[in-house]
């Protein structure tokens, strides 16, 4: 199956894997023209290449609501909900602390739905947020951590240019039982530390980029049982399609790269990634 305007799909994987982090309902913001695919087209294309299930992330209140509604009628989709760190900073700056807390309260209500398996993506992003708004981001992060712990759900971390503070907040607040570093961007030392805590590390398209040898060295040291894979679609498209809109059906490129780098049989890695995703987010 192909959809006009999208990249041709790769060969199917040797065994199924799960996209542990995607944004099905952001394609309308990111793709242009009249051939924007709908979520069901994207899900069908992913299933055809060996990606039968996805974790859909809704990272503001509106898109979190949409994500929950989408998953209720699609058994191959579960959800993470949050106020993204950059949105937390914007809400606080525009509308104040009470508005930010009200948005997080809404996320806490949505997170109680059975289709919601994770709280996140939450965390810190110092790339787009200046020092004056790091406090609100950290406040939001702490509240999301508490929601995940209260509900017994996975915590999905967004960490951009903020490694030390993300770990500091996690440790001071007390991490939930399941922590997933989405689109892991640290080095091998950080990967070892996170692995020692039992936190999952999820790799996306950037691990295939030529300049990211440090990220590949991090991939090398993650224990098999803590390894996840994702697209973060429609962003972070892997080589050989870097720079074009991403989608779950392109994840075989990243999986095959990971298998080669780790010296693993493709089917064996797929089976491990599938089992890890189910362990992190629960069976569905």
Distinctive features:
single chain; 284 residues; alpha/beta; TIM Barrel; 8-stranded parallel beta sheet; 11 helices
Question: Your description of this structure?
Answer:
The protein is of the alpha/beta class and 284 residues long. The protein has a single domain (18-281), classed as Alpha-Beta Barrel (TIM Barrel), CATH 3.20.20. The protein is 44% helix and 15% strand. The protein has eleven helices and eight strands. The protein has helices at 27-30, 39-48, 61-72, 85-95, 97-110, 134-151, 163-173, 188-196, 213-221, 251-262, 266-281; strands spanning 18-22, 53-58, 77-81, 116-125, 154-160, 179-181, 200-203, 227-229. Strands 1-2-3-4-5-6-7-8 form an eight-stranded parallel sheet. Helix 7 links the parallel strand 5 (154-160) and strand 6 (179-181). Helix 3 runs parallel beside helix 5, helix 4 packs across helix 5 (97-110) and helix 8 (188-196) packs parallel to helix 9 (213-221). The longest helix has 18 residues, at 134-151. The protein is globular. The model has no long low-confidence stretch (mean pLDDT 95).
Any chance you could write out the topology, listing elements then pairs?
Blueprint: E1 18-22, H1 27-30, H2 39-48, E2 53-58, H3 61-72, E3 77-81, H4 85-95, H5 97-110, E4 116-125, H6 134-151, E5 154-160, H7 163-173, E6 179-181, H8 188-196, E7 200-203, H9 213-221, E8 227-229, H10 251-262, H11 266-281
Parallel strand pairs: 1-2, 2-3, 3-4, 4-5, 5-6, 6-7, 7-8
Helix pairs in contact: 3-5, 4-5, 4-6, 5-6, 8-9
């Amino acid at each position: 199956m192909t959809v006009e305007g999208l990249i041709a799909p790769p060969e199917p994987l040797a065994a199924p894997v799960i996209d542990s982090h995607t944004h099905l309902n952001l394609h309308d913001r990111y793709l242009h023209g009249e051939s924007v695919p709908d979520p069901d087209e994207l899900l069908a294309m992913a299933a055809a290449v060996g990606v039968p299930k996805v974790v859909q992330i809704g990272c503001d209140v509106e898109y979190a609501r949409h994500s929950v509604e989408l998953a209720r009628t699609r058994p191959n989709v579960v959800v993470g909900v949050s106020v993204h760190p950059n949105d937390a900073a914007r809400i606080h700056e525009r509308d104040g602390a009470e508005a930010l807390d009200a948005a997080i309260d809404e996320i806490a209500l949505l997170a109680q739905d059975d289709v919601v398996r994770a709280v996140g993506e939450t965390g810190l992003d110092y790339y787009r947020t200046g020092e004056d708004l790091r406090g609100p981001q950290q406040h939001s992060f702490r509240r999301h951590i508490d929601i995940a712990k209260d509900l017994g759900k996975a915590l999905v971390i967004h960490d951009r240019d903020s490694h030390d503070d993300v770990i500091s907040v996690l440790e001071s607040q007390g991490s939930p039982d399941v922590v997933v570093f989405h689109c892991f961007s640290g080095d091998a030392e950080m990967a070892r530390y996170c692995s020692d805590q039992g936190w999952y590390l999820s790799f996306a398209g950037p691990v295939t980029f030529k300049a990211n040898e440090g990220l590949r060295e991090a991939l090398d040291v993650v224990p098999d049982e803590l390894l996840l894979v994702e697209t973060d679609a429609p962003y972070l498209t892997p080589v050989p399609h870097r720079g074009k809109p991403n989608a779950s059906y392109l994840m075989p490129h990243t999986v095959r790269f990971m298998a080669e780098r780790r010296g693993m049989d493709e089917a064996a890695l797929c089976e491990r990634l599938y089992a890890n995703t189910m362990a992190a987010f629960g069976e569905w």
